[in-house]
């Protein structure tokens, strides 16, 4: 039987292959690191969004409580009224004060919501920009390292 010829792989090829594997590993590590940092930033953005939603919800319940208490106060004044004129006066005062209170609440709630959305958008934009920048930097570093390795051969 014929013996299989023993072809030896040149040292330069083995060195090149080893450097290529090392560079591929470094490139992968760089990309994974950038992806993890981006994921952490996005997670932080999600936490901020959750916090803002909680603040808006809490404020909404506070407004509801204020408005219901004002209605109960009106009801108490109405049952204590001595005549229809006094009841109508209490009703008119309630409408004026509630109109002003609801305007102020809407303005404040709108400002809180706008601020929350703005923060979320800014964080998302920052996370995407950071991720793209880190991925670009990792790619450029690894492309430069690969170029140097091929130049050495």
The chain-level mean pLDDT equals 83
Shape: rod-shaped
Distance between the termini: 39 Å
**What is the chain-wise order of helices and strands?**
HH
The value of Rg in angstroms is: 34 Å
Q: Residue share in helices?
A: over 70%
| Percent of residues in β-strands | under 5%
Tally of helical segments: 2
Number of strands: 0
Structural class based on helices, strands and sheet pairing:
mainly alpha
Biggest sheet layout: none
Molecular structure report:
The chain is mostly helical and 153 residues long. The protein is 91% helix and 0% strand. The protein has 2 helices and no strands. It has helices at residues 11-80, 84-152. Helix 1 runs antiparallel to helix 2. The two termini are 39 Å apart. The mean pLDDT is 83. Residues 123-132 have a biased composition (Polar residues). Residues 30-126 form the Phasin domain. InterPro entries: Phasin, Phasin_subfam-2. Pfam families: Phasin_2. It comes from Methylobacterium organophilum.
Summary of the model, kept short:
By secondary structure, this protein is mainly α.
